[in-house]
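[audit] Reproducing an earlier prediction to check determinism. Same input, same settings, fresh worker. If the tokens differ from the archived copy the diff job will pick it up downstream; this log only records the rerun itself.
[audit] input (520 residues):
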Amino acid sequence: MRYLIPCAYLIFTLTSGFSQISDAAYVYQNANHTTVSSYTPDAELDYLILESNFSKESVKQIPFSDRRITRIDLIYTTFRESQQFDQRELDIARLEALIAINPRIINNKFFDWNIIGQTGCNTSSQCLEFFHGFVIYYEDYFTKETSRQEIDSIKTELNELNQWIVKNQDKVEVNYNRIPCEYPESLYSSEFLTDKLDKLYKCSEDYKARVFFEADFDYNGRTTEVRVKGNLFPCKNELAKRLNYLLQWKRGITIGNLQYGLTAKGYVSFPLKGESVQITSFEIDQSLKEQFQMLQQYSQCVAYDMDTSYVKLLPKLEKRDVSSVLQRNSWNSDLYVVDVTGSMYPFTADLLKWLKLKSDSTKKSYVFFNDGNDKPTSQKIIGQTGGIYEVNTTDFEEVKSKMFEAMRNGGGGDLPENNFEALMTGFNNTQPTGEIIMVADNYSFPRDEAMLARFSGKLKIILCHTEKGINTDYLNLARKHGFSLHTFGSDIVDFSQKQLKIDGSVYRLVEDKYYLQQKH
């Protein structure tokens, strides 16, 4: 997709000061310098064209979008009419002009600069036909379809993890603990049910025999379906209808502290009299049998809580940013706040794999945010953006399901996101006493820092996408509020120094703000 902004004949007076001149020279010095016969923008990417006149120091301000810039190309022609002409000086002047009116492009250097000379013209008139100016490339726009693809990728990684676990069964520890298990009582006696059925049942056939049935009921004990057995019985639908109305239990089956649905088996003896309606046994759903290692008995049910520990496998897990940070820090966390907007897939998968192997039996809260459920930017109000999904559980499957729900309902999000709206949702609902872990996108930054006025927790921010350096906005945020920052290779906890060296890059504190001084 191409966006063209013709540049007016503007001459910028460069009064921006030393820092911007240094920035332009720094960009020029560290850019990728190449030559081509004639430049053609990459049609497979979204880009914006900013034209400038040949040999004129003019460029129009970049209209920043909600999408991240991934690359800026400065294009010129290598032909010179005069040997005294200094192309380097002109290029730096163009960069200075661009930076002067667009300082955001230099604050955090997370994209590539390319300075490209075109060699395909040999006269001034020929070169005027060639493009001169900037081409700005943007990250792909993330959609709901992208989210579905990312969910599929996470599922694939989790399946591969399960296969890896099977191959390393010798390091898996399984403990079984017996837990309470109790069948429910019927709300009504057999005699009461028989009497009521006799009054409601309408069938002209004179039948003398036992008719067997199965009745499904939910965790509250409400009957949801009755199936009458026997092909010879003439009034199956009538009997099923009446039993569905009459049968009710005090609750579902109790396993541990929770209740689940169940199937009751029984019969009705015709003619109806006395205690004709009888419940003979219960059938437990196969998934519950497997989950709780249950033994099927009528008089009592036996269930076990299976505690599977994969802790010995954690050191062998292939580490990404999130798992690397969690592996080296022994935090007692009550709350995880996780960015699940587009492009975070590798890191959300990493978190799920870590949680799967960690298999922590302590209940924790997880808050996943997608920056507004794909809401238009104009409708995003601080504190009311939405797209926040919360679950408090020990069950890995519940965590995974809630994360996928948040991903399905979101999209790419904006560059500014609603991190702290999500944080305050979890903080207020959980009231955590331990560390709070936030998994955040280094390329983005929260739009809602103002909400931190009501926050008093211990926040640990794991930054993802730090291969091109740390977003200095996060350094300033952490220093201001007493947070710590964590990357694949570093834990930044001390902001008392004027200079920080992080993952090979140097950041210097100037007038209470950090700036990237030297890139690794």
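[audit] rerun output stored. Observation attached for the diff report: The CA atoms of residues 294 and 303 lie 5 Å apart.
[audit] end
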